[in-house]
C-alpha cells in the first residue's frame, strides 16, 4: 500500500523532462490525395509521433491536433512574410487567427517564421527580424511568449568553411541580419532553427565525404574526421554541420543559443543522376538519425545538449517539382503504408509498430517485484484497464505471479493508449516486445482479435470508453532516468523504514 501511495505522490512532484531531445516529423502537403487531417492525426498517434511541424497554420489540421498531446510547430509561409515584416498589425492578426484561436487545446510550441529566407527569398531578408519581433510582440501581448518560441529555419548553406567545424562562420553577406537575429533568439530564450541535409553535402562532395560518414555508419579510424583545432572527433556529417553552426554563432560572440534541426532526412528513390537515393540508404539514415537523437548524446562540441530534430518528412509528396528524389523523402505513402520499415530496436516506442506489425508491452523478467506490483495496481486502478481476466477462474489467472499479472495489465494499458510514446515504461520495469505473450486461452489485447471470440472472458479488448490520461502518461514521456532515480530513492527509504 505504501508503494501505491508513493506512486501517486510522485505524480505530484514529477519533474518535466526538459532538455531531452525529441524526434518530430515535418508534414508537407503537396500530395494529390492528401489524407484528411483526421487520417493524418490517426497515423501520428499509431506511430507514437509526438512532435510535428506544419508548413503553414492550416485550421483543419490544427483542430484535428487538438487534445492529442502532440506538440506543434506552425509556420508563416514565405508568401506571407513581407506583409508581416512590414506591419505589426498584420502580424498581430496572424497570431490571433493562427495561434490564439487554437491554444491551449492545440499545443502550439513554436512558430517558424518563413523557410530558408536568406537563401530562397533574399529580398525579404531586410524585414526578417522585424517579422520575428512583430510576431513576438503579439505573443507577449497574449501572454503566450513563454510557451511559444519564435525563430526562422535556415539552410545550412549559409554556413561557410564548415569543415573543420571550428573554422565555420556565417556567410558575411548576412551578418546585418544574423547579428540582430541571434540577439533576438538570445533575448527571447528561443533557438536557432537549422535544416541539415547530409544527403546534399554528400552529393556535392562525394569525393571527400564517404557515404558511411553521411549515413552514421561506423568508419575505419583512418577515415574519421578530426578537427585539428579542437581535436574533436566527428563520426558523422550531421554532428559536424550542427557544430559548425555552434562555431559560426560563437564567431559572432553568441555562445548560449541552442539549436533545433527543423529538417533532416534522406530520399528513398531518385533518377539516374541520384544513385544514392535508395530505400536502403534512406532507411539507414533515418533509423540512425532517430537513434542518435533519442540517445540524447548531443554533438562533440556540446555533448550535454541533445539536438531535437524534425524528420523530413511524413509523406512522400508526389506533386513536388524537380528531380525524382523530391517526391520521395517521406516515411509513409499518402495511404499511410510505410515506405520502408525503420530499424529501431531498443530505441523507445516512436514508430514502434513500424518494426513489426504487432508490439506488446511486457514486464522485464528481472524487474523488482514491488515495482511490478505498483505498476499492476496502477494499471488496474487509475489506468482503467479491465483486469477481470486476471481474477481467479478467468483465462489469465494462471500463472498466478506478479510478473505474469503485471505483464497482462501493463500491456492492456499500452494498447489502450494506442501504444503512444512513453506508455510502455512504468519506471523502467516494462519494455516493448514483438513476441505475442498470449498463452492458452489468455489472449492479450493487441494480438489481433482473431482469437477473442474463442475465449469466455467478456471484455478482453481494452474498454473503449476509458480515455484515461492520468499522470503516468505525461510523466512517463521522455527521459525517465531522473524519475527512476527519485523512485528508487523513495523506495529504499520505505524499505529501510519497514
Ligand atoms: C504597432 O506599433 C505601434 C508603434 O510602436 C504601436 O503603437 C501599436 O500599438 C502596435 N500595434 C499592434 C497591433 O501591436
Ligand atoms: C505543451 O508542450 C509543452 C512542451 O513540450 C509541454 O511542456 C506542455 O506541458 C504541453 N502542454 C499541454 C497542455 O500538453
Ligand atoms: C554569400 O551570400 C551571397 C548572397 O546570397 C552570395 O552571393 C555569395 O555567393 C555567398 N558566398 C558564398 C561563399 O557562398
Ligand atoms: C567578439 O568579442 C571580441 C572580444 O570581446 C571582440 O574583439 C569582437 O569584435 C567581437 N566580435 C563581434 C562580431 O562582435
Ligand atoms: C549514447 O550516449 C552515450 C553518452 O551519453 C555515448 O557514450 C554513446 O556513444 C551514445 N551512443 C550512440 C549510439 O550514439
Ligand atoms: C506487416 O504487414 C504487411 C501488410 O499486411 C505485411 O506485408 C508484412 O509482411 C508484415 N510485416 C511483418 C514483419 O509481419
Ligand atoms: C500501427 O498500429 C496501429 C494500431 O495498432 C494500426 O492501426 C496500424 O495499421 C499500424 N501501422 C503499421 C504500419 O503497422
Ligand atoms: C486461439 O488460441 C488457441 C489457444 O492458444 C489456439 O490453439 C488456436 O489456434 C487459436 N486460434 C486462432 C484462430 O488463432
Ligand atoms: C472458459 O473458462 C473456463 C474456466 O477458466 C476454461 O476451463 C475454459 O477453457 C474457457 N473456455 C475457453 C473457450 O477459453
Ligand atoms: C464504460 O461504459 C460502460 C457502459 O456504458 C460503463 O458501465 C462503464 O462503467 C464505463 N467504463 C468506464 C471506465 O468509464
Number of strands: 15
Task: Please tell me how large the radius of gyration is.
Answer: 24 Å
Q: Kindly report the average pLDDT value.
A: 84
Bound molecules: 2-acetamido-2-deoxy-beta-D-glucopyranose
Largest sheet: 9 strands, parallel
Please work out how many helical segments DSSP would assign: 16
- Identify the CATH homologous superfamily of the largest domain: Glycosidases
Distance between the termini: 12 Å
Poorly predicted regions = 1-18, 352-356, 449-498
CATH architecture of the largest domain: Alpha-Beta Barrel
- Which structural category fits the helices and strands? alpha/beta
Pfam families: Glyco_hydro_17 (PF00332), X8 (PF07983)
Family: Belongs to the glycosyl hydrolase 17 family.
Protein name: glucan endo-1,3-beta-D-glucosidase
Signal peptide: 1-19
Amino acid at each position: 500500500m505504501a508503494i501505491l501511495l508513493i506512486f501517486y505522490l510522485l505524480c505530484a512532484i514529477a519533474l518535466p523532462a526538459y532538455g531531452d531531445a525529441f524526434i518530430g516529423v515535418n508534414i508537407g502537403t503537396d500530395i494529390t490525395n492528401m489524407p484528411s487531417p483526421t487520417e493524418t492525426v490517426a497515423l501520428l498517434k499509431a506511430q507514437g509521433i509526438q512532435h510535428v511541424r506544419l508548413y503553414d497554420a492550416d485550421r483543419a489540421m490544427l483542430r484535428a491536433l487538438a487534445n492529442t498531446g502532440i506538440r506543434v510547430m506552425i509556420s508563416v509561409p514565405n508568401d506571407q512574410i513581407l506583409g508581416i515584416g512590414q506591419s505589426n498589425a498584420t502580424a498581430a492578426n496572424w497570431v490571433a487567427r493562427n495561434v490564439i484561436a487554437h491554444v491551449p487545446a492545440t499545443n502550439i510550441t513554436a512558430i517558424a517564421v518563413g523557410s530558408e529566407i536568406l537563401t530562397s527569398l533574399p529580398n525579404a531578408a531586410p524585414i526578417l527580424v522585424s517579422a520575428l519581433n512583430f510576431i513576438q510582440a503579439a505573443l507577449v501581448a497574449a501572454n503566450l511568449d513563454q510557451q511559444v518560441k519564435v525563430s526562422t529555419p535556415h539552410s545550412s548553406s549559409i554556413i561557410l568553411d564548415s569543415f573543420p567545424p571550428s573554422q565555420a562562420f556565417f556567410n558575411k553577406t548576412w551578418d546585418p541580419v544574423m547579428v540582430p537575429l541571434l540577439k533576438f533568439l538570445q533575448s527571447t530564450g528561443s533557438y536557432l532553427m537549422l535544416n541539415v541535409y547530409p544527403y546534399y553535402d554528400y552529393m556535392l562532395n562525394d569525393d571527400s565525404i564517404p557515404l558511411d560518414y553521411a549515413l552514421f555508419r561506423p568508419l575505419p579510424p583512418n577515415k574519421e574526421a578530426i578537427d585539428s583545432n579542437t581535436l574533436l572527433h566527428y563520426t558523422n556529417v550531421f554532428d559536424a554541420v550542427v557544430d559548425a553552426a555552434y562555431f559560426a554563432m560563437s564567431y559572432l560572440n553568441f555562445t548560449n543559443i541552442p539549436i533545433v534541426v527543423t529538417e533532416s532526412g534522406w530520399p528513398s528513390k531518385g533518377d539516374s543522376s541520384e544513385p544514392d537515393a535508395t530505400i536502403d540508404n534512406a532507411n539507414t539514415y533515418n533509423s540512425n538519425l532517430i537513434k542518435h537523437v533519442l540517445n540524447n548524446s548531443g554533438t562533440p562540441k556540446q555533448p550535454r545538449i541533445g539536438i531535437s530534430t524534425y524528420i523530413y518528412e511524413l509523406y512522400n509528396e508526389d506533386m513536388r517539382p524537380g528531380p525524382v528524389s523530391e517526391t520521395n523523402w517521406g516515411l509513409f505513402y499518402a495511404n499511410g503504408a510505410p515506405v520502408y520499415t525503420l530499424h529501431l530496436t531498443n530505441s523507445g516506442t516512436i514508430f514502434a509498430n513500424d518494426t513489426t506489425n504487432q508490439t506488446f508491452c511486457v514486464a522485464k523478467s528481472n524487474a523488482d517485484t514491488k515495482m511490478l506490483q505498483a505498476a499492476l495496481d496502477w494499471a488496474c486502478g487509475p489506468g482503467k484497464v479491465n483486469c477481470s481476466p486476471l481474477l481467479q477462474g478467468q483465462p489469465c489467472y494462471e500463472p498466478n505471479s506478479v510478473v505474469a499479472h503485471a505483464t497482462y495489465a501493463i500491456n492492456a494499458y499500452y494498447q489502450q493508449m494506442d501504444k503512444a510514446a512513453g506508455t510502455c515504461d512504468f519506471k523502467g520495469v516494462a519494455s516493448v516486445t514483438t513476441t505475442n505473450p498470449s498463452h492458452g486461452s489468455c489472449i492479450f489485447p493487441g494480438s489481433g482479435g482473431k482469437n477473442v471470440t474463442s475465449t469466455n472472458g467478456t471484455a478482453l479488448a481494452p474498454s473503449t470508453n476509458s480515455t484515461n490520461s492520468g499522470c503516468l502518461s505525461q510523466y512517463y514521456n521522455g527521459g525517465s532516468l531522473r524519475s527512476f532515480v527519485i523512485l528508487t530513492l523513495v523506495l529504499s527509504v520505505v524499505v529501510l523504514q519497514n
